[in-house]
Design brief:
The complex is a heterodimer of chains A (about 550) and B (about 90). Chain A contains 19 helices and 16 strands. Chain A is globular and about 80 Å long. Chain A is α/β, with parallel strands linked by helices and about 550 residues long. With about 90 residues, chain B is α+β, with helices and mostly antiparallel strands. Chain B is globular and about 35 Å long. In chain B, about 40% of the residues are buried. The chains are: A alpha/beta (about 550), B alpha+beta (about 90).
Chain lengths: ~550, ~90
Amino acid sequence: MIQGTGLPVFPGVAIGPAFVHETAKLELPTAWGSAAEERQRFTDAKAQAQAQLQTLLEETAARLGQEHAMILDVQIMMLDDLDYVEAIEARIDGGDSAAHAVQETGEEFAEVFASMDDEYMKARSTDVRDVSRRVVEILCGFSSAMTMDVPGVLLAEDLTPSETVQLPKDKILAFVTRKGSANSHTAILARTMGIPSLVAADVDLSAIQPGDTVIVDGFTGQCYIRPDEATLAEMTAKQTEAQAAKEALEAYRGKETRTAKGRKVKLYTNIGSPDDVELVLKNDGEGVGLLRSEFLYLGRDTYPTEEELYTAYRQVVEGLQGRPVIVRTLDIGADKQADYFQLDAEENPALGLRGVRLCLSRPELFRTQLRAIYRASAHGPVSMMFPMIASLWEVQEVKALCQTIREELTAEGVAIGDVPLGVMIETPAAAVISDTLAREVDFFSVGTNDLTQYTLAADRQNSALGRYCDPKHPALLWLLQRIADSAHAAGIWCGICGELAADASMTNTLMTMGYDELSVSPAQVLKIRKAISESEVVSQ
Amino acid sequence: MKTITHVIQDPMGLHARPAGLLAKAAAACEGCSFSLTFKEQTVDAKRIMGLMKLGAKQGDTLTITCAGENEDAAAASMESFLKDNL
């Protein structure tokens, strides 16, 4: 049995086979069969790789459109390319193992592309490497986590935002990553999915074989690989117990969200894609308090069109069946981007050209998104909010742009709804001038994760800074009170969509401050409804 | 033997997608071989990597020679494929 400890990001116990997602160097075989046997192994692995790509292609085509699936089709064809296949077979005949032959040939072909004087073709070397790696992984019996045939625990060094969008979410029982922090993308995804997960875990991935039984304890942060019988029995019992506690929360399903003294509070959800709407309904969310827009832009090669954006937003609005949705406009920066944005690398991306700053610097990008959101508002209640606001002029510019677009669409005869406009309060500056901002907008939503990082000058992605990133720091509590007071003085509502909203030990404090809305991961809705119901706040 | 020429119209040149489609179209004519010549390099048009490695761009002229069964029909269908896709 191997034991490890990490930072738990969602409570619960998961038990299942290990899937190790590793981009580290593969261990090639040290012994292999005759040339005839290796040729056969290569042929089989190639067929399996093509089948995997075909599945991925169909999924991608359905999710992102035929255009984006094309590159996978090219990869399938590369595997059939006779130059490539003959080069591999020649190496096998020369005494190489199938895995070595594919690895070396892939590298050789990739080098040719990399040396071409055309940027596009240079980039194709990635495809050759990618497809060769897929075959080598199959030959080494290495299980790529991106294709999971049975439910299991995904272990990885780290996962990038574009990797997380491609994960087979229905198969993942838990995440364990060696890097990351409570606010890294994997952690947020784990909470959205409601699965027990660990980040910053001290687990030696190389000691884990694919298929090893893994237990993740999301209460204590422990994980056990190849557990002994006593541990397995103990953790199975704990899993059952946790399940029972979860069922007890079911009593809060379908109930109105009110404090013990009767004040009505809006309990919304944070989601990242149209697929998550199902989770909102399943977990009894009253609406969406934060619809992230990044999913529409990440994991692809070109900017989404207005039509694509509109279709996705409309899908969310219609899926919610009359429940309100607050769309956050694009929140992308140099640390979280797609290549086609061609953002310059920044020394300090958290303080860089991101969020509304990026949108204001690229008016066409912003316009396309705003038009799509307004068009979707014809199908149900839609609000819009802007990230990374620090100054009054930003709000005024954004509002003017929204007004222009409203008029434009109206002139075109396009139906649009009444779209309340709000701002995210996530910079200390916005919190300080919240009294001024409140006169400009219809609502506030506090992004406590960024507000914490900016107020305390502590990078939320740096796992070494965990205890410095304290969202309950007196400075934060002071700002939170100020934000709520500013909103109410101007007669607008205020909510919280950061991780603090889902901390049940803080619910009473937030209710006392007067917050009108909390937006949490769908899986946390019932827990927070219980906490609100138990909070002792006088009706206002 | 039948020879046709085509000037690339696609602004991206002979990039991955048309190279893939071209290789597929060529492979569909089983009894026929297609060799594609560009700047003194000749490659088998049924092989995608070879096509991509040519690095042919918009405005470049490709020369395709086809030989085998029904080469006239094969050349004609290749010609219309190139017009539609490249």
